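Follow-up to my earlier ticket, as requested here are the two runs.
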Amino acid sequence: MATATIADTPYAPTHPEIRDAVRALCLKFDGAYWRKLDRERGYPTEFVKALTEAGWLSILIPEEYGGAGLGISAASAVLEEIHRAGCNAAACHAQMYIMGTVLRHGSKDQKQRYLPKIASGEMRLQAFGVTEPSSGTDTLSLRTTAVKKNNSTYIVNGQKVWTSRAEHSDLMLLLARTTPKDQQAKAKRTEGLSVFLVDMRETLNKGLTIRSIRTMMNHNSTEVFFDNMEVPAENLIGEEGQGFRYILSGMNAERVLIASESIGDGRWFIEKAVNYAKERKLFGRPIGQNQGVQYPIARAYTQIEAADLMVRKAAALFEAGVNAGAEANIAKMLASEAAWACAEMCVQTHGGFGFAEEYDIERKFREARLYTVAPISTNMVLNFVAEHVLGLPRSY
């Protein structure tokens, strides 16, 4: 039942020098910038370009390929500060955890061909094609197929949904079925899926169609359709049939990084609420003098601080090479729920002004709500903890 621990590395480093530099960059992209994009459902091209040129999006790529070669705690610091500054890293955060699959399981040729261009910004790896309309989080039931036509090509047919940033990415990491499910041994239910690196510059409108999905927040979500799309066999990552394992190996990193964004959101909401409670006066006194206003802010602060400790623990374990599945999932759940509690508190503190666009709270309110559902919902995290940590019978 016990989760993994390391006595001499209980928490990941906080990287204050990285935080200061990222926050300075974010000051150039104020609330007006994000409000305009939110109204238009636009992509923050200038913001992503600035992050890329500063080297923050290549922080996990080894130095030999043009990156900084740092660990996940450094990447977490980058994403947390982006959100703490009132910005949104959703337009580019996937690059950090998607390319881990290439790093861990790609061939030497694939790494040399793609990673330097990703690090420099010449190519964007932002799209992650996994979820499907019929299977959702039941990844092992996905239906998109990749059939080997000859020794040099796979033919892909199917559909993916919630493939964010596909319209603004050059490359897509795609999970597809290479072994029909009815031919798959039950004992090897996790096999039969394979991972491909799809160059969308070559396949768009040549078997690949992208359609945008308008959502309650500006997340650049899309659905993608594959109609006899050709993918070179050399773009297969690792071994055929082992793709699910490759994808899983990157999910702990995804959980930690998303959790870091939620911590940043929570701290943004707290700062906004504290400042407003000090300045706003009613009945001749600051509203922050009232315990009815103080207590929700203080409670939100305790929630976000506690969640942050779990995020740092998960990051430390991940960097030490320990299986941090439980910690990463718990961190993501606690951080997202704490951020949502902070969002609720911030709106309540501001009253009617919390709904006004100019305060940025309603935008961040919508953005923070996403992470209690995606990339994995709270209920799925609880399923994981129940089965894999507590040893309870599998529920699905």
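Run two:
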Amino acid sequence: MATYKVLSFDKIPSTQTYAHELIARGDAADHIAVVADAQSAGRGRYRRTWVSHHGNLYVSFIFDCEERDPRLSYSVAVAIAESIASFGARPTIKWPNDILIDGMKISGTLIEYSGRFVIVGIGINIKSNPTVESYKTTKMENYATVTRNDLLQVLMRKLDKWIHADFQTVRSRWMDFAAGLNENIKYQGMPAQLIEINECGALVLRRGAEYLLVYGDEITM
């Protein structure tokens, strides 16, 4: 495993924002992990607020990135799912990279690019889980005994493994964890069956005799 430089804080506005600032001022390098005990302005996809109380894992990884690849999202999801599973829990992946246990969200990911780097922001509920109107949440403490540092160490090893893996291997492992596979979900408000992800990283849905390729939109389980 590559050596990580870990920058740890009690509380900052956002690990993701701090990572961007490191890059902007020329202080970034490959394999930096920005970790905070709490965030005052944590954020997720689509500029959503990520509630960030003490006791959970909030980390943004900075990696060298020669070119942008939307399939990275699947590698990260598999790394998180395997990390959580290593402590005895049974996670699933909701497309593309939300991690669920018993249908409830336990982890979210935000991937952003900046210059020659990619920033992979990950939040995992360990000791607390927020109340969210649109979906149910849960926490690791309900399923396993784990410390933040132990989880972080496993996560770093899994990320190193999966972000460098062949995509066909990633794709197969993602499908092992996939939530709702071969079941009916909702896409753009209409029912469809979740079939797979293809070799290009698109989600394949079936609606009647029609097959749909989904790249960026959200689905509802």
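The only thing I checked on run two: The chain has a mean pLDDT of 92. Let me know what else you need.
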